[in-house]
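call fold(seq) -> C-alpha cells
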Amino acid sequence: MSSAPDGPIVALVPAYERADSVAATVAALRALASVDEVVVVDDGSRDATADVARDAGARVVQLRANVGKGGAVAAGIAATPSAGVYLLLDADIGATATAARSLLGPVLAGEADMTIAVLPSAGRRGGFGLVRNLSRWGIRRACGFVAAAPLSGQRAVRADLLRSLEPAARFGLEVGLTIDAVRQGARVLEVPVALDHRHTGRRLSGFAHRGRQGTDIVRALWPRLIPAHPART
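ret:
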C-alpha cells in the first residue's frame, strides 16, 4: 500500500449517549476542508445523541441496540462503501477534533496506511495506566510494534486496509486494529496531536469503565497471542 488512496474521506464517529458533546465534535469535523462526510454511528443510545448529531450536520447510522465500539465501527464501515480514507474519532473530543487534520496528512500522501494520535498526558485526570500497560505489552508481544498510545481511538486509516480487518469487539477495537494491521504489513505511524476528550478519572465510575475496557482488551488479545494449533489426527 504505497500509493495515495482514492475515494472520499469519511469521519466516522461511534457514539453512545454523547448528546452533550457530539454536536461540537461534528461541527469541528465539518469545518475540516479535507473531510467529505461526517458519519455518526449511534450505538443504541437512550438519550438524544442521534438527533443532536443529525441537527449538527452528520449522517447518522442508528443502531437499535448497543453493540459496543467495535460493532459500531463495523456498522459505519458497512454504511460507507465508497470511502477512501476513514478518520476514526471519539464523540467526546468536541472542538479539538479540528486537530485531527494532522492524522490525515501521512495517509493522504501515501506515507502511512494508519496513523494513530498520541494525545497529551492526562495526568491525574486519567487512571493509573494498568490497562494501557497491558495493551502496550500485548501489542508488542503479538506483532512487535511498540505503541506509545495503544488505546488511542483517534486514527486515520486507508479504507481498503480497514475493510480487510475484522474489528475486535467493544473496547478491544484499537488493540485489535493495531495488531492486525501490523501483521498484515501495514505502515503504522503514531503522530502527536493536541486532542482532548472526557477523562473518567480516579473515581469509582472511572475504575468500573477501565475494568470493562480491560476485559474487552484481554478478549481481543487472547486469540492474537495464542497460536492456533492444527487438530491432531
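The two ends are 40 Å apart (CA to CA).
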